């Protein structure tokens, strides 16, 4: 089975998710700075989620380089990841509109945890395929970021009820970790082609 | 006529349908559990519809493997299927927002029946094309799932006015039937390539 | 210049247009037939527009078979067509929500006229390209549908202020004319490949 | 790394941005000319933004012809550009709904400046890739439009608080500059293939 359509469909869904999040930034009725001011938390939430969805797209892009053909067994792990990502606009909007109240911040972290879990499952499903790039598989398997991220997420979810700023700092930290390009994957891609 | 653009357009429409359904989950105004509670039926409807649209995408993906070239005669059967799928966000939102009231649950089933019918018509149009994979055609022709599904749908539509839980169980049952990967199609794809 | 990205971008925009129109069908607050009843004109408008956008996608698909490479000179005629199509959701929603009041019905026809004009301009830009399929060009040039459609549109716009039913019948008639597959294009595609 | 998916994802995001802007044109409740009248500034803003996003898509399309392969180093500059473009629907809607009040007009210009800056950064990242088309790189490097545009944007932002008409004329002027096809790029594409 060819992987082109899986990529195209995932690209479509991720492109829509990353774009409709901006619809949660409702156009204010006034036209002065006071009308704009309450939008800052919404904009900040949007930036954070934009970076997260961007990271997932980049990683999805990299991950699919590890396989040449797919089978029906990866279609559902892929849709499962897209499902959790599709809850990002809701979680982002709720968090921004409530100016980072504890529960929405914790729920946002819950969506991040579930997306991270879905990512691990998709990674496993792909690397079990016959013909998967075992070098890339090993590189991804030793992935310390993938192990550290859920720990920080869970800590941040707890912290949301204690100190919201620290909780958000946790989410931002994980995003920063992933923003740094993964040299091993680039290395494998450059030498494996 | 090349099938690439038909696939790309269908991927686009299905990706948008599966993603805009989440927009029916309106961000609540409060920030506590009480604000979140009324969203459960909306989330549940969303999960059910996400799985259904995911199944249609997977099957569409499989079905188009049976042909190498398409003709203008399949463009409208394909758009007809996309039309009924495009009503899923409306039906899902109406059912969720009314906490599974009888009529919305029945209308949801009506959309599922029409999509199933449109699927059969698309399948026939594709398999009539010159050069269609007759092995896959026969496998799909003996498709007991395709025959059982509308029966369960119609029973569930009737049950919606008697016992909503049973009706929803019917919809979930059909989804579960289709979630199990179709070994015959995989078999044909693996051996036919 | 390769035509793949032009097709992909157009597919994306048309897929979004055809799908977001359904968002104008707002989920009603009640859960009985009375809540559903006022949606009929909205659904009817949606069906008509879905068919129109579907026709444009099919024809776009056919038209681009006439060329192998594109130049920068067709990018804007293509965007110009997409612009008028992008007004379809607005025109459709306005017409449906006002239960086919005269002005919205006339404005809907205005959008159809402008899209038809944009279509003619795109067709000309494409067929002027070096290497365009002159057989297809000639077939498309003798296109009586393209000449009759604007006449019916303009008559329907006038009729909107006299008898809305006749006006809508005019729009439906043009859609029906185009739904019938164009044998000449199919003929050229089959023999020209 | 193959550039197909980067193009597909960018096409998807840009297609969604250009299309959801029309959702800011809310369907009015009345059905006469008086209901339509307040929509003129919204429609005008939409046309301006449609042209701008169209220009970015055209230029993105051209720019990616300069490279054959991409590396992970261009994924974030590309997402950064898409981020600023994704704020266009918000800025457009705010400007249109407030009938070109000074602050929304200035904020609109701010988004244009940031998108222009992101464009320059993406251009640099792409042209640093090994194997980039140095002829195209040089042509793009001498790009006077890219140098003049931010100056006009900044002047227009200041003018927004003095004379809104002049400010909008500035934005329209930059759009007009870019609408004129860039002969050097076409030249390079035609001779470089």
UniProtKB/TrEMBL annotation, chains A, B, C, D:
Task: Tell me the protein's name.
Answer: TMEM175 family protein
Q: Which domain of life is it from?
A: Bacteria
Membrane topology type? Multi-pass membrane protein
Catalytic reaction list? K(+)(in) = K(+)(out)
Q: Lineage of the source organism?
A: Bacteria, Pseudomonadati, Pseudomonadota, Betaproteobacteria, Burkholderiales
Q: Which UniProt keywords apply?
A: Ion channel, Ion transport, Membrane, Potassium, Potassium channel, Potassium transport, Transmembrane, Transmembrane helix, Transport
Q: Which family does it belong to?
A: Belongs to the TMEM175 family.
Keyword Membrane tagged: yes
Q: Where in the cell is it found?
A: Membrane
Annotated membrane-spanning segments are 6-23, 35-55, 103-122, 151-180
